[in-house]
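Can you give me the bound-state structure? Components:
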Amino acid sequence: MTPNSATSAAPSRRSFLASTAVAAAVVAGGVPLLSACGGSQEGRKEGTTSGKDAQKLLPTFVASNVVAPDLPAKNGAPAGFTKAIATADLKTSVPKKLGSGGKLKVMSPFWGTPPKGDNPYYTAMNEAVGVEVTWQNQDGVTYDQKLGAVLASSDIPDVVVVPGWNLMGKIPSAINAKFADLGPYLSGDKVKDYPNLAAVPTEAWQRGIFGGQLRAVPMPGSYVTDIAPMYRKDLFEKKGYSVPTSPDEFLSWAKEATDAKSKVWACDDMKWTAFNIFSVFPGSDKALWWNLVDGKLVNRIETEEYLEALEWVRKLYAADVVHPDAVSGKAGGDSRNRFTAGQSLVFNGNISAWWGSVTEQRAQKPDFDMAAFDIFGPDGGDPSLWAVQPANIFTFISKKATAQQIKDFLALCNYCAAPYGTKEFMLTAYGVEGTDYDVKKGLPVKTTQGVNEVNGAYDYTGNPAPYTAYPDLPDVTKGMVEWMQRMGAFTKKTSFFGLTITEPNRWSNLADNFEQLEDDVVRGRKKVSDVQQAVSDWKSKGGDGLRDWYKKLLDDNGSAN
Amino acid sequence: MSHSTVPRPRAEAKTPASAPEASEGAPGDRAPGGRRSGKLSLRLRLRRDRTLLLMVLPAVLLILVFNYIPILGNVVAFQDYDPYLSENGVVAIFQSPWVGFEQFERIFADSAFWHAVQNTFVLFFLQLILFFPIPILLALLINSVVRPRVRAIAQAVMYLPHFFSWVLVVTVFMQIFGGAGVIAQTLRQHGVEGFDLMTNPETFKYLVTAEMIWKDAGWGIIVFLAALSSVSGDLYEAAAMDGAGRWRRMWHITLPALRPVIALLLVLRVGDALTVGFEQLLLQRQAVGVDASDVLDTYVWWNGIRNQDFGYAAAAGLIKGVVGLALVLTANKVAHLMGEQGVYKK
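Here's the bound-state model for the whole set.
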């Protein structure tokens, strides 16, 4: 959640992916979600590392206080910055160039069109960091398809970005096999060589431990869900609707608001919001699927809540209040476009779409207004929410890299992890002043060149603690942060929160097809009883074994809550 | 397609005696080591054909490297293959544990696999009945157009959709036949609710075939047009002189001329029966659900690439390959029985 592409039509890619898989899956249209973990056979670690073992690996935390946020971090929500900082007041967080002038090839996902390699922004970044970066950008939506093939080859790029929702099947074992241990450079006080990385929260670093070693530079994110139900405030006011406060109320409102003749439907696919309403354990990371209930580990797919959530969404579909293109899923196009076009009045997606849509729409429609409504409980009232992982995009460096290359990589990450209010942040997020952005009325505004060039390349190579900063729309920033604060107050943690867990190989593909089963059920093509059947198959094919395996892990490591 | 392609080089090469009966000579020639019964030795034949052999060599190498050597990779179907066991995915094959037929047992026990098989065959037969004749009809139609300008324009219009990507084709269909498409909205204005062809699993197979016809039927006429252009105009004139009408000319001249091409394409199509579309189906997977849209190719992709279950997907692919081979051999046999050349002849 950064003002990374303040004037861009597209939502900031950085924010777009800020913390969970769900975000991208929903917004980008069904990025495969089920992050199965692969295991190990010969000496490669399966399981996890926590407690004392993790303490030895984790970097020391040294807070950075460059600019006090206008909305301090609270209830797990990110810190909010609503004011722009004048160029003259920007601080310096990287006083000395840390890069050695070496070269790095970086493979990372990209949403949109990557700019040409030799643009002024990249040149300025390379110069400032002291590392010559060559990008190998791949389409973010189909990144999982490339990733497996690249990692299976013998020639992998120096640096590889791996989103958490791509940790499917055997990718985790690829990570343990192919990427370098950063422990010798970062563990304990060693991280102090890289002050911006030292300010990355410890719980994010904890997620960077793969196969018993600190391998990843994580992208920190808020643990509060950022999948928000967003509604067209302008249209609600015009029609005199009040925001629904319970599932039943939502359904009856939806029936009233749908006017298919005029091409208006009440909502888009609400599955991810339903999971939050009915308090289903998070679906973004395999380990979060489990939680200890009355002394027994229970998987999200085994819970009543899971079935109730699916049943409710099914009712929405059956009542024909969901936009027909949403029924088609991926082939139907982007849910946000239907929302901004006024064809649907409510949709769920990453909350950063709030800022993205408002900036994009206000140019043509000054009256455009939207907001996120608070998630309610199954009977109305307060919800009971579950925390998502505090970091879910990881950046690795190849085992074949030299010590100098690893140091250059960390120099790059340290630079990009500069917090709001620094010169480094402005260069990373806005580009070169006068070329990529101009300051107008005290606000940085990207030029056309800036929109095309400064559009997300450096989003994953280092990030500061979670924050939301859109000085161009202070109200939206405030709305987003406060929504997360309110939701944060109802958020609890499941048993394996914060841990990166590698499941044994033999069970890693067990739950791969539940997501498409969910989609079939809510659209009425399969019955809830089919889910129950799939769950009992899952149990007999290894689900119970996996439960015992997780239980042992919990007994050995202790719980997060 | 021609009977004489195999023997002709030999006929030119100093063995005039065997030329007329080339089809008998050919099997003897193929036996390595050379027979003594008056045939040339292998060495002599190599020397005689060296220019030709050299010319074939690059193609053979390409086929070896890209088609035959990768076949060896099918061994992972019998393993719990993990490409990350080693730095090199090929080396990892040697380190992966051997599981015998376990992957095949898993596949045969998977109801999703049988759905995919069923869908594959249903789509194949639908395409055969609904799609296959259309290019022939179109070719006859185009062939009957006399004015070259009209003909060129008609052909261009028919070819064009072939160059659209599947994403575009599906979107166009969506805009017309979808739940918020032109037809659905028009019907709604007149009080009829619920028209949505794009998300109906029952009619999905027809939808897919319709999309395919729209996209590729025009492209399919090229081969038939070429065959038609080789029919001598004299035949038509002579038939017309004898009083044959339009239909009789088509029945007795045009269609017999097309027969070998139709038979060949039919055999090829049957051999390709298990390949009924990939991108098109993957795109619409969510719209109608897996049970309606999964075919063998998407099943293999989903399990192999998406779920990284390599051994399992390789086993499914192997099954597809074996069934496909059986089908092409059968189809070829049938073509021979019908007196056609088919893809190859013994």
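A couple of observations. The first helix of chain B runs from residue 8 to 12. The domain at 102-337 of chain B is CATH 1.10.3720.10 (MetI-like fold).
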